[in-house]
Every structure is written in C-alpha cells, then in structure tokens.
Amino acid sequence: MVVAGLTKADIRALSAAAQLRTWDKPAAACLASRVPYGTAVSVGILSRVDRAEAALHSLGFRQVRVRHYDDTARIEVDLADLPEVVAQRDAIVAAVKATGYRYVTLDLEGFRSGNLNDGHVGSRP
C-alpha cells in the first residue's frame, strides 16, 4: 500500500470495482491479540480462538473477537449487534462451548480493537 501510494479506502474501492468478494471484509488482527499479556500463546489456544470466531461468523456476525481467558471466552461484537447476540444466545453458547470453552461471556462495551493494550483491560490478577 505504501509503495503504491494507496490508502486502505483506495484498496477497498479497487477491490470492489474488481468484484473481489473480500472488498469489505473487516480488518483482522493476529489471533495472538486475543490472548492477555502474560499468558503463554500456543497453537491449541489460537486454534480454539479461531474456531470460536469462525462459529460466530457462521451465525452471521461480521465483526467479532473472542478473547481467551483460560476456560472463559469473552465475546466482543459491534454494539449494533448486541441485540442479535442476545437473540441467538443459545446457539452462540453452544457453538463457543463446542470449541472447548467452559464459560461464554459477552463484553457489553462491544468490539474494541486493541483493547488488551489498555493497562486494566485483560490484565490478570
């Protein structure tokens, strides 16, 4: 992008013009960003997070993050999607538990990119 002098908006516009199916795909951060600082990152954890997020995408949620806290999954979605999460509560809980989590929680502050960078959010006692 930098070498070509294109912005993210330029890339999306060109992708839409080329009829690429990913032209409006949300940005996706590294899966390790779902794991709190101080927690060892493993292939098993990243795989579990990836499967849980894929399950939420399959239920129709576009922008999601599953934050990993041992046996707890903390789900973040766009604030506009909170009512739909509640409406699909049973399906979401079943889908996320099927990936190996024991507890499924919803972050009422919604999706926030990079929120584990905050000193108090995601820190462990």
- Broad structural category: alpha+beta
Major β-sheet annotation: 3 strands, mixed
Low-confidence runs of at least 5 consecutive residues: 119-125
Portion of residues in beta strands equals: 5-15%
Strand sequence of the main sheet, in spatial order? 1-2-3
Order of helices and strands: HHEEHHE
Overall average pLDDT: 85
Radius of gyration: 16 Å
Q: What percent of the residues sit in helical stretches (DSSP H or I)?
A: 25-40%
The gross shape turns out to be globular
Please work out how many helical segments DSSP would assign. 4
Number of separate strands? 3
N- to C-terminal distance: 41 Å
Main attributes of the structure:
125 residues, globular, disordered C terminus
Describe the protein in words.
The model is unreliable at 119-125 (pLDDT under 50). Helices cover 33% and strands 13% of the residues. Helix 2 packs antiparallel against helix 4. The protein has helices spanning 8-17, 43-58, 82-87, 89-97; strands at 64-69, 72-77, 103-106. A 3-stranded mixed β-sheet has the order 1-2-3, with helices on one face. It has 125 residues and is α+β, with helices and mostly antiparallel strands.
